[in-house]
């Protein structure tokens, strides 16, 4: 077992090395194969996925031994492919006050059994706490922070080597969410803006996919300095027909939309990303439904995005500390963050909306004369001897700390400038 913790920048650290977690919730079923015949977990791990969600909603004392055995088998499968599990604890981590002279409550007994049974497994990466505790649609039954704080403190005493992540609904306010800070190591929200009609998940006036940035900023404020992981859309119940909602029309993000949402979350403070809904086979093509996971979406959208985010060029920017360089865009509908790993200065930029035009960026160190635009559409390696097979990126010229580049709405770019 290696310790999983949080570094000074908010990046997750596994065995002391920083990573930007890419989580599938849920991932392909263990032992399943892609329609092409490859092991499903091997496929997603090879592209750069680092975590898959495991765990269950209905832990119970009568079944706890068999449940732990089943979860260990899932952790075995994950670890065999270099993956770690984000283990859902259901409603277990919500403890009542202790009663002096009385045995521990059933919830606390379950929490102890789960931690004792799984914490030493090399496939365990983090715990997932109660889902969306402050969701307004719980009505009067929304889950108060006190029980979650008691569970957090108990679990940290049982297992101090794995962080606890609580994901909120996208609807709560900073004032409503801030009291949960003592109940988690990492927080975040799920936000699924792609639907017919748009905006039925986030329920705000903003129906554009750039609502992801709004919710991320809110969660960063609510977290009070703790890291944020954002959960983005493959599919969700609002785009999946059911007996309750037979007329729902399925809708998925395009590659451009998913890429924009991922980078907008990062620009606004996310230190990890979760992609939800690949397991909703009711909206998958028949061959994918038979395989148990939406491999069509994976091939068309998620695999190229994950490969880019975990590439040797981009990955260092996602775990680097924020830079001191105060880079500013010439228009208010452009959002950016600067990162510095000591070797390169990175500027990650998204355009929320607006027109298609040239945007000017100022504030780079004046010693910089040019930069590269990483993973922009097509990059072909030049043949030897010119490029010796090395990947070549488009360049931008820099003069007096300034550069210009074209941007359209929902464009996302990662610039790299050698220090």
Question: Can you walk me through this structure?
Answer:
By secondary structure, the protein is α/β, with parallel strands linked by helices. The protein has ten helices and 19 strands. The chain has helices spanning 40-47, 64-80, 106-118, 145-158, 174-177, 211-223, 255-267, 286-291, 295-309, 315-319; strands at residues 4-6, 12-14, 17-19, 22-25, 51-55, 84-88, 124-128, 164-168, 186-189, 230-233, 273-276, 328-329, 334-340, 344-351, 357-362, 370-374, 394-397, 402-407, 412-418. It has an eight-stranded parallel sheet. The chain has a five-stranded antiparallel sheet with strand order 13-14-19-16-17, with helices on one face. Helix 2 runs parallel beside helix 3 (106-118), helix 6 (211-223) packs parallel to helix 7 and helix 7 (255-267) runs parallel beside helix 9. The radius of gyration is 22 Å and the shape is globular. The two termini are 37 Å apart. The mean pLDDT is 95.
List the helices and strands and how they pair.
Blueprint: E1 4-6, E2 12-14, E3 17-19, E4 22-25, H1 40-47, E5 51-55, H2 64-80, E6 84-88, H3 106-118, E7 124-128, H4 145-158, E8 164-168, H5 174-177, E9 186-189, H6 211-223, E10 230-233, H7 255-267, E11 273-276, H8 286-291, H9 295-309, H10 315-319, E12 328-329, E13 334-340, E14 344-351, E15 357-362, E16 370-374, E17 394-397, E18 402-407, E19 412-418
Parallel strand pairs: 4-5, 4-11, 5-6, 6-7, 7-8, 8-9, 10-11
Antiparallel strand pairs: 1-2, 2-3, 12-15, 13-14, 14-19, 15-18, 16-17, 16-19
Helix pairs in contact: 2-3, 3-4, 6-7, 7-9
């Amino acid at each position: 077992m290696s310790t999983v913790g949080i570094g000074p920048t908010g990046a997750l650290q596994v065995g002391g090395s920083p990573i930007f977690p890419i989580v599938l919730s849920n991932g392909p079923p263990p032992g399943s194969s892609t329609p092409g015949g490859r092991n499903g977990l091997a496929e997603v791990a090879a592209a750069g996925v680092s975590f898959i969600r495991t765990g269950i909603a209905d832990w119970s004392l009568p079944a706890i031994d068999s449940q732990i055995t089943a979860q260990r088998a899932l952790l075995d499968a994950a670890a065999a492919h270099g993956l770690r599990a984000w283990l859902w604890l259901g409603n277990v981590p919500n403890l009542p006050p202790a009663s002096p002279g009385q045995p521990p409550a059933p919830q606390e007994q379950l929490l102890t059994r789960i931690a004792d049974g799984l914490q030493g497994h090399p496939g365990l990466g983090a715990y997932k706490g109660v889902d969306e505790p402050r969701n307004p649609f719980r009505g009067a039954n929304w889950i108060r922070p006190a029980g979650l704080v008691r569970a957090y403190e108990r679990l940290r005493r049982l297992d101090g080597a794995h962080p606890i992540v609580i994901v909120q609904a996208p609807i709560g306010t900073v004032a409503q969410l801030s009291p949960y800070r003592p109940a988690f190591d990492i927080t975040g929200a799920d936000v699924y803006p792609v639907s017919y009609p748009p905006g039925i998940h986030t329920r705000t006036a903003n129906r554009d996919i750039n609502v992801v940035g709004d919710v991320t900023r809110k969660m960063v404020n609510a977290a009070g300095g703790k890291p944020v992981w954002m959960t983005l859309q493959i599919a969700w119940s609002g785009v999946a027909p059911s007996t309750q909602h037979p007329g729902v029309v399925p809708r998925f993000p395009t590659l451009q939309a998913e890429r924009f949402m991922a980078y907008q979350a990062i620009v606004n403070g996310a230190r990890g990303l979760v992609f939800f809904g690949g397991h909703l086979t009711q909206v998958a093509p028949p061959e994918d439904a038979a395989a148990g996971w939406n491999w069509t979406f994976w091939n068309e959208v998620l695999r190229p995005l994950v490969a880019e985010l975990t590439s040797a060029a981009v990955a260092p920017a996602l775990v680097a500390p924020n830079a001191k360089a105060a880079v500013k865009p010439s228009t208010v509908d452009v959002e950016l963050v600067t990162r510095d790993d000591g070797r390169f200065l990175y500027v990650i930029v998204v355009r929320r909306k607006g027109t298609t035009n040239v945007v000017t960026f100022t504030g780079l160190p004046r010693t910089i004369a040019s930069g590269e635009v990483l993973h922009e559409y097509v990059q072909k390696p030049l043949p030897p001897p010119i490029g010796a097979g090395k990947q070549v990126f488009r360049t931008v010229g820099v003069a007096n700390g300034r550069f210009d580049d074209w941007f359209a709405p929902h464009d996302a770019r990662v610039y790299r400038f050698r220090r």
